[in-house]
Every structure is written in C-alpha cells, then in structure tokens.
Amino acid sequence: MKYIRLFITIVCLGSFAAFAQGPQDIFEKYRDNVCLVEYYKNISSQTKIGSYMKLKQKRIGLIASADGLIIVNSDVFPISLDILSMDVGSFRSGEPSDFKVKLHDGREYKAEFIGKDDVAQMAFIQITDAIEAPLPFVKFDDTSNIRVGQPVYLLELLGEGYEYEPLFTSYTINAVIKSPRRKFLIKNDINALSAGGLVITAEGAAVGITLRNGYNMDFSEHGEFDDFRRDFLEIAPTENFQGLIEDPPIFQKSAHRGKAWLGIGMQALTDGLKEFWQVPAEGGIIIDRIYPESPAGKAGLKVKDVLIEFDGQAIDVTRDEELRRFRELITNSKPGAVIEFSVFRDGKVKKEKVTLGSAPRSIDLAEKYQSAKLGLEVRELTWDILYEYDLPLKTTGVYVFQVDRASPAGLGGLDVGSIITHIDGKAVKGLADFEQKISEAVENGNNKIMFQVRYRRVTSFVFIDAK
Amino acid sequence: MTRIILFSILIWLFSSSLIAQNALQSQIFNARDRVMPALVHVEPVIQIFTRGEKQHTVVTGSGVIFSKEGYVLTNHHVAANATKVWCTLSTKERITATVVGSDPSTDIAVLKLNLEELENEEIPFAELGNSDSLEVGQIVLALGSPLGLSRSVSMGVVSSIDRYFPNRGSMVSPYNLWIQTDAAINPGNSGGPLINLFGDVIGINARAVFFAENLGFAIPVNLVREVAEEIIEGSSVKRAWIGLEFQQIKDLKEYLGKDDFHGVLVSHVTENSPAEKAGIKSGDVIQHIGKEKINVVYEEDLPTLRKIIAALPVGKKTGWKIWRNQKSMDVKVSAIEEPFKDDPEYEASEWGLVVKGLSWHIFQMQSLPDYNGVYVSSVKPSGPADESSIRNGDVIRKINDKVVTSDQEFKSLYETLIAKDGGLIYLELVRNGHPYFAVIKPGAGS
C-alpha cells in the first residue's frame, strides 16, 4: 500500500513536470509566430509634387491566422482615416508598399496592406503568395485575470545589429490601467525592433501586444513634470484587438467606413455648471457644438444640452481631461448602434435615442489632383476641413494639400491649408472641375491664372504664372 | 617742372580730403549738439500679468523732447502699460513723466515731463524735420540708450525709405513705411531719435532685427508728427474703420493685361462690417474714395491707402468708385470708429483673470460674429477662473446673460457683481471659434 502511494505520488509529480512549461518551452512554442515585416514607406517629395521617396522599414509582425494575416503596429501607414483620428495624420505619407514577410525558418512571402485601426494602434497585412502549409499562428487568451505583479514574458525581435534574432525577456506587470481603455504597463529597459511584440503569461497564454512607447516630455497643465510614460511599455490586452483579428479593418479609400460617430463638440459638466443649471447628475457632457449633418444633429440634440446617461450608464465626467472616456464609449460602439441618452435640457431630463453614424473620412483619404508643373497637390473638400474651418458643408472648392515652394504655385504665394474657391473668377465645383479649369487655362495660353482662396474665413487672391 | 605740378596736386588732394573729413566731423558734432541736450533716457515701470499675477518691471528705452512744454516722443512698446515713467535728461537730472497717450498701430507714444521737478524749467528741445525729403544713402545718426547704455550715438546711412512689413500676428504696423538704416540700433534705442546731419529729427527708432547686422528701422517723423499732434489733442488716435483687407494690383494688372489700370484689390470683406453692408465684395477693385484716386500697385502703397480710410468721417457716407466684372460702379460707404481698442489689461482679481479689449487678430482667429466680447489675456492658476476651466485666449461674450460689449462694459459688470457678494457667475465664451460655457464660483480655488 505504502509503495502504491509512493508510486502514485511519483507519477503525479512526473506528469506535472511533463505538462508544466518552462520559459524555454514557451519561447519554442511561440517563436514561429513572430515574423519580420519589411516594407517601403513612401514619403511625398516636397520639391517635386507627385513623386515619392522610398524608405525601407522593418517591423515586428505577429501571425494571426493560418492563411497569413499578420498584425503590425498602425504606424506603418500614418494617415488619418476619419475625422476622429486627426492627430494621427502625416500629410507627406503615401501608401506603404512592397510588404514582405520573413518567417523564423527563413521562408519569405509577399504581402499587402489591408487596413488599420488607430484606436487599437494595430494594422493588418495579408500574405499574397501561395503558402505550402498552414502557418502557425497566435491564439490569444482571456486577460481578465491579469494582475499587477504577475510575471510575463515578452517575445520580440532585435534590431539590425543583431540580425533581427528573437528576443525573449521576463518581466512583471507593473500596472493595470483601466480607463479610458484597459492597458498593462511594464518597465522596459531593452530596445527591441519596434512595437508589436507578443506578451505571454508564465503559464504560456498569449495575452497582449506591445504598443508604441510614447515618450511624453510635456509639462502637465498643473506644472508637474509629467514623466508618466518614461521607460514604460504599454501593452494592449487581447480584448482591444481580438475583434479586429476576426474582422480586420479594410482600407479602401472610397468605401472606408469610419469609427462610430456622434458629431458633437463637447466639454465636461463641471461642478460650477452643474450647480448653476441644477443638473440632477454627478457628471456629464455639455454639447458646445453640433456638427452639420451629424447623427447628433439629425436626432435633434442641441448646443447646451447636457448628456448625463449613455444607455442607462451614468456619464461621470466633471473635468475636460476626462472627456476621452466618453469618446471611448462612442468609438467602442458600432456605427448604426442606437444609443439612448438621458439629456438635461431646459431644466428637465429627457430620453433621446441617437443612431450613431460612421465618422466621415478625413482629407488624408480624399481624391487628389497633382500638377508637378504648377507645383501643387489639391484634394476634394472633405467634411473634416469644413468642420475645422467652420464653413457650410455646401462650400465648394478644392483643398490645397501640398505646394512646392519653388514652383509657380509656391512663388505665387499659395499656402497649404487654403481652399481654392474660384479660378479666373469662376467657382470651382469640385476636383474634376478644378482639373478641367486648370487644363483650359493652360491650353488657352493664359500668362497668369487667378485663384481666389480662403484660409479659414479670410479670403485673398493668388496669381500664378501659367507659362 | 612736371614733378612740382604732380607734388602740388598730391598736396592739394590730401589737404582737400582732410578738409572734407573735418567738414563731416564738424557736421556730426553740430548735429549731435543740436539734439543731444533733448535726448531722454526713459525708464517706465510697467505693469504686466504673468499667470494672472500682477507684476511690475522696469524697462529701458529712449526718447526725445520736442517742445518747450516738455513733450517727449517715444515708442508705444516702451511706454504702454506704464504705471510710472522715470526720465533721465542729458543733464543727468532724473524726473518723472506722465504718459499723454500712445498709439499701438504706429508704435508711437507721447510723454510729458513733470517740469516742476526741475530747478530750471526751461529745457532744450529738438526740431522735428521732414522725412519726405530723405534720400537713400543719406548719412544719419541714431541717438539713445542701446541696452541701457545712455547717451550713445551711432552713425550710418539711410538704407531704404519705404520698407513695408505685412502684419504678422500681433506685430502690426499698417500705417508705417519704415526708414531702414545701418546705424546700429539695439534694444534700448527704441523711442530715440534718428537725425540728419543738420540735427533735425527725421525718425523715431523702433525696431531692430536680432541676429542680423545693422538692420534698424525708424518711424518717419512726418507720421510721428501727425500721430503725436492727435495724441496731444485727445490722448488717443481715433480712426475710421470699414472692415476691408487689401492686396496690391501689380499681378492683377498683368493678369488683365491693362497697363493703365489703377486701384486696389479687395481681398477680404469682414462679415457684418460697414463695407459688407455697403455691398463691397472680395475681388472688387476700389478706384476712387471720395475724390481721392486710389492706386496701390505695390504693397508699399498700402499704408497711404489705409491712412485715407482711417481719415474718413465716421458715420457719414462717402462715395466710392469700384470696378467689378469689367464695369465701373458707385457705392456709398459709411465708416464706423475702429472697434478694436488697445486699452490696458484689466484685472478681475476676484475671479482670477485678466482681460483685454478685442484686437482684429483675435476677432478673426475666433471667427466672432460681431465686435462684442473681451479677450482673456491671463488666468491665475488655481483661481476661480482656472477652477472653472477658463483659459488664456478665450473670449468672454456674455456674463449672466448680459452681452459684454467692450472692456469698459466688462469692468462695470464685474464691479457690480463683486459688490453683490457671492453667487455663481455664468459665462458664455468662445474658444477656438466655438461656444464654451463656464461658471465662476467667487472664492473658489486657492
């Protein structure tokens, strides 16, 4: 009997040892899921409109499906897709090209960019070459049990100096950020190739992806030195991107569908305003602007309305710094979702249903016309520009996106950011009309072309040598 | 014989160059002696607001006495917001002066010395010359206190007589065609005289370009004289305003292929302005204002046009001839008094904020629909305004539903409300061109 017990104990221990994964096993398990992504960044030339400078870039990629869906950081294409991501844009960025995926075993495949999500900071590329056998891919696990102090491993790639070899490091979760979007922070002291590394628990579960390490050297408004993000690496937990893996964002200029959008300008319901208006809520959002043709406007919301509940959930915002919590509530919803707001208006609380729209696409995705001869790139007017300049949506014209300083347009004094409303005294109806009017003026042999332009609300005239 | 002639010629050349040098030197001495006694080292104690806190600081500038009553010319940017002005005369006597008035648009200020503080109330003064007769290349002297080094003289020539600077942000000089000189001008020279070799003041030094060599700019004395006379008469300069922005027509003439075309191109019409009410549109060419023929071919011609407009009678209709779509037409324009005043900042200390009247720049930047409102120039950290999220740059349009028509109106509303003791103050503001709401709780914050 005694020997039987001993035997059972030994068998149990042995089997436990056989199932428990050491760091080496975890590394081996996930090593093939991490790949090197090569591509060209195309930077628009400032001296020759229409030409692009190619810069070779490398990023960490994570294989997300057997047929070759790869996750990379959204910085591979730094443009704004819709009006909600205005601060992401880089007006000199053309589409990235010539993607190549190198697997750990040395195989190489061509790939193409399919789309990105700037809120999640993730972009997706798809291998286009035929793949001989299904690829090993990462399956992400639930993260609800992740706690501060938990040991994790980080699997990344080293830089060029180390020939992009895998880098495996053990860390501890130093903080769990809850709002406005859940994130983990770990203290980071080793530089890897890029964001996009895989985060794995000591039990071997993949639970997150590293994000760009944003240095923030700003002085905060209250005078403290805000070094909150220094040396920290941010990790997006599974729930922030799992939906994207299942239904990746599709980048298609004409059919781009923006994030869920309400279409208001807002400020926090401060204690003072709450007291003055006697709003029966702890916090809320004051609408200080309704964008024309927005879901909020169509639903009858008004400037000075105070939103106090979002689908029965209190909107607990009392400082402007907290507004992004409300923005997250909206962007985490789906376009077309019907939200019931409790609205405080004229001393009474009412329920208002609003069907969220999708955010209008940004100027970065607008159709363009380039003339290297005149030295300009103009784009069709998008709502973000008209909202920004407070112009009616029926405003016609084209937006000046780029000007070559040494060209006729540059020498004539045309400024980036202005709207060309008239050519030679005739209204510009849109991009095609602009192109036609320019061609006519050049064909007619005019010495000069007269543009009437407006910058925000101030108008002026620009004369351009056409010869 | 040839040698003797050659030798005599050499001697003659040498002595004549010596004579010429001596003549120039004595001209410089004479000019210096005519103006130096009237030179003033100006030290205004100015009031500034930093993060909502009132502070005082002393700045250094220059000035020149131009009348026996003790009137001194200096720059607006030297004397503006002065609570007290100390003046050190050439005799090294130090007395106080009062600011009679100042004009930000031309950067001219007039002080009056408190002569009763002197033992001998008779003071020397400089003669104002004629800047229209200046020529490029003419020798000039700049007098003043560069970097606080008083009673300094530097010499150079007039480099240009019609330098024009377009408005840039808060740097505006719509009426000035500057005299450019290579006579050394440094901070502290501001307000000092630029003189010719006859000892006449031909300009007031006002600007220099840092990191450049010998690029100084003076306001022509003829403009200075006009403005100073108006200041002495009424303490401020009143100008008519119609709400138009202009462009020179050089390019338009080429575009139209009309060499004999004259006028000025209207580039922008301010919403709800007298010009818009008169039906003027951007793209119109103004050819006559009253009987005055307008011709702004180059940007250097713009200040003359602006002076014509500024001098229009307020509230009375003037006939203008404009050219639109190849046709000439007449319009009647009734100017108003310029709605933008550069009054000193006003501190609403109980609310922890400082306000200023609107400038055209703020009016445009904030896309305001009318000229009502005051601009928040400074907010005290953790004060009531800061606690209610009011920021620098906001425009206060309404207080407790009352329209704030001007900085004076703000002051009176503020004084009434603080006398009432307590109660929430509801403000409607404009921030970045859009409405913003705030409630000030007097006594809130630290």
Could you characterize what this model shows?
The complex is a heterodimer of chains A (467) and B (446). With 467 residues, chain A is an alpha+beta fold. In chain A, 16% of the residues lie in helices and 35% in strands. Chain A has helices spanning 2-19, 23-31, 242-246, 271-277, 295-298, 323-331, 383-388, 408-412, 431-443; strands spanning 34-44, 52-63, 69-73, 97-102, 108-117, 122-127, 151-157, 166-172, 175-177, 183-187, 198-201, 206-210, 232-237, 260-261, 264-268, 285-290, 306-310, 313-314, 338-345, 348-355, 357-358, 368-371, 376-380, 398-403, 419-423, 426-427, 448-455, 458-465. Chain A is flat. Chain B is of the alpha+beta class and 446 residues long. In chain B, β28 (425-431) and β29 form a beta hairpin. The radius of gyration of chain B is 26 Å and the shape is globular. The mean pLDDT of chain B is 92. Chains A and B meet through β15, α4, β16, β27 and β28 of A and α4, β17 and β29 of B.
Q: Quick one: CATH class of the largest domain in chain A?
A: Mainly Beta
Tell me, briefly, the overall form of chain A.
Answer: flat
Helix percent of chain B reads 10-25%
Total helical elements of chain A: 9
Number of helices of chain B: 9
Please outline what is shown here.
Chain A has about 475 residues and is of the alpha+beta class.
Q: What does the secondary structure layout of this molecule look like, with pairings?
A:
The complex is a heterodimer of chains A (467) and B (446).
Chain A: H1 2-19, H2 23-31, E1 34-44, E2 52-63, E3 69-73, E4 97-102, E5 108-117, E6 122-127, E7 151-157, E8 166-172, E9 175-177, E10 183-187, E11 198-201, E12 206-210, E13 232-237, H3 242-246, E14 260-261, E15 264-268, H4 271-277, E16 285-290, H5 295-298, E17 306-310, E18 313-314, H6 323-331, E19 338-345, E20 348-355, E21 357-358, E22 368-371, E23 376-380, H7 383-388, E24 398-403, H8 408-412, E25 419-423, E26 426-427, H9 431-443, E27 448-455, E28 458-465
Antiparallel strand pairs in A: 1-2, 1-4, 2-3, 3-6, 4-5, 5-6, 7-8, 7-11, 9-10, 10-13, 11-12, 12-13, 14-21, 15-16, 16-17, 17-18, 17-19, 19-20, 22-23, 23-24, 24-25, 25-26, 25-27, 27-28
Chain B: H1 2-35, E1 39-50, E2 53-58, E3 61-65, E4 71-74, H2 76-79, E5 82-88, E6 94-103, E7 108-113, E8 127-128, E9 139-144, E10 152-163, E11 178-181, E12 193-195, E13 200-208, E14 216-220, H3 221-234, E15 240-241, E16 244-247, H4 250-256, E17 264-269, H5 274-277, E18 285-289, E19 292-293, H6 302-310, E20 317-324, E21 327-334, E22 336-337, E23 346-348, E24 353-357, H7 360-365, E25 374-379, H8 384-387, E26 395-399, E27 402-403, H9 407-420, E28 425-431, E29 434-440
Parallel strand pairs in B: 8-13
Antiparallel strand pairs in B: 1-2, 1-3, 1-5, 3-4, 4-7, 5-6, 6-7, 9-10, 9-12, 10-11, 11-14, 12-13, 13-14, 15-22, 16-17, 17-18, 18-19, 18-20, 20-21, 23-24, 24-25, 25-26, 26-27, 26-28, 28-29
